């Protein structure tokens, strides 16, 4: 049985002679195309089946010069958008990340970014390469959090730690988050509506950052993302906790001093 490659080759031209014209450029081009096609067919596999692969088949849009397939590009974009890729939430992207971890890590290194993959927690995220000698431009920007938002992140991180100790998922309700934030509301605050807005905005911000995810069928209950443990290591949480305790103690002392001043003033007037 003749090979398909043989069927596609152009018959050899007789040698040039005074009575024969030289092959035309179109014939030369056809020969080159046939040779390229033959090489592609030879790489198709041992089955001998003809597989035609157009040069632009991998292109995903006009003028595309990228080499990564669609699913790998989706993982790369998700990592760049951040804050993390969670196997429980991004079920289709996680196996692609594990499959193409090496090439993804290489592409991110070209942007001075490091890929962090925690197979136990099944989460991954990117962070800026920490190397002063590289003098690398900073691509990632840290999100600035307000006092109330930071207090909520601290609470969520603590809930995650407690749930891990029990071997459970960390689930919190909207009311539990708001109740915790009320601890940081100053006693003399007269604008309760403003603080409630700040508390609600903090919950929305946590959802936007994918730190919490609303449970299906339950409007007011959320699951805390395991990525929070990687984004906020234990030492950072410890430092933040100490800072907030000092702030809370200082506010309490300030309120106490203000109360004593009022009492002393009343006694002097009497």
Overview of the molecule:
By secondary structure, the chain is mainly alpha-helical. The chain folds into 3 domains: 4-42, no CATH class; 70-134; 147-258, Arc Repressor Mutant, subunit A (Orthogonal Bundle). It is built from 10 helices and 6 strands. It has a 3-stranded antiparallel beta sheet. A 3-stranded antiparallel beta sheet has the order 4-6-5. The longest helix is centred in the C-terminal third of the chain and has 36 residues, at 234-269. The protein is globular. Residues 1-54, 258-263 and 265-270 have low confidence and may be disordered.
Strand order of the largest sheet: 1-3-2
Estimate percent helicity: 40-55%
Q: In the residues, how many domains can be counted?
A: 3
Give the integer mean of the pLDDT values.
Answer: 73
Q: Output the radius of gyration.
A: 32 Å
Fraction of residues in β-strands: 5-15%
Unreliably modeled segments: 1-54, 258-263, 265-270
SSE class? mainly alpha
**What is the N-to-C succession of helices and strands?**
HHHEHHEEHEHHEEHH
Helix count equals: 10
CATH topology of the largest domain: Arc Repressor Mutant, subunit A
Q: What is this entry, summarized?
A:
The chain is mainly alpha-helical and 270 residues long. The chain has ten helices and six strands. The strands form two sheets. Strands 1-3-2 form a three-stranded antiparallel β-sheet.
Characteristic terms for this protein:
270 residues, mainly alpha, Arc Repressor Mutant, subunit A, 3 domains, 3-stranded antiparallel beta sheet, 6 strands, globular, disordered N terminus, disordered C terminus
């Amino acid at each position: 049985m003749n090979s398909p490659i043989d069927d596609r080759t152009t018959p050899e031209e007789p040698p040039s002679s005074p009575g024969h014209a030289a092959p035309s450029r179109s014939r030369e081009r056809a020969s080159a195309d046939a040779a390229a096609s033959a090489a592609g067919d030879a790489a198709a596999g041992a089955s001998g089946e003809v597989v035609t692969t157009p040069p632009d088949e991998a292109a995903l849009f006009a003028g595309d010069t990228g080499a990564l397939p669609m699913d790998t590009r989706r993982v790369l974009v998700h990592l760049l958008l951040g804050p993390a890729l969670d196997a429980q939430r991004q079920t289709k992207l996680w196996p692609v990340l594990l499959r193409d971890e090496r090439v993804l890590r290489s592409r991110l290194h070209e942007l001075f970014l490091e890929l962090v993959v925690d197979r136990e927690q099944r989460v991954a995220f990117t962070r800026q390469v920490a190397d002063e000698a590289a003098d690398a431009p900073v691509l990632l920007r840290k999100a600035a959090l307000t006092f109330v938002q930071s207090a909520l992140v601290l609470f969520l991180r603590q809930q995650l730690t407690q749930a891990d100790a029990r071997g459970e998922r960390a689930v919190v309700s909207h009311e539990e988050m708001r109740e915790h934030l009320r601890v940081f509301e100053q006693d003399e605050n007269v604008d309760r509506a403003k603080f409630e807005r700040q508390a609600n905005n903090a919950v929305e911000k946590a959802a936007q950052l994918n730190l919490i995810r609303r449970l299906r069928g339950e409007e007011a209950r959320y699951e805390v993302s395991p990525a929070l443990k990687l984004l906020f290591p234990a030492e950072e949480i410890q430092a933040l906790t100490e800072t907030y305790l000092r702030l809370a103690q200082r506010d309490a002392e300030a309120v106490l001093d203000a109360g004593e001043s009022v009492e002393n003033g009343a006694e002097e007037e009497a």
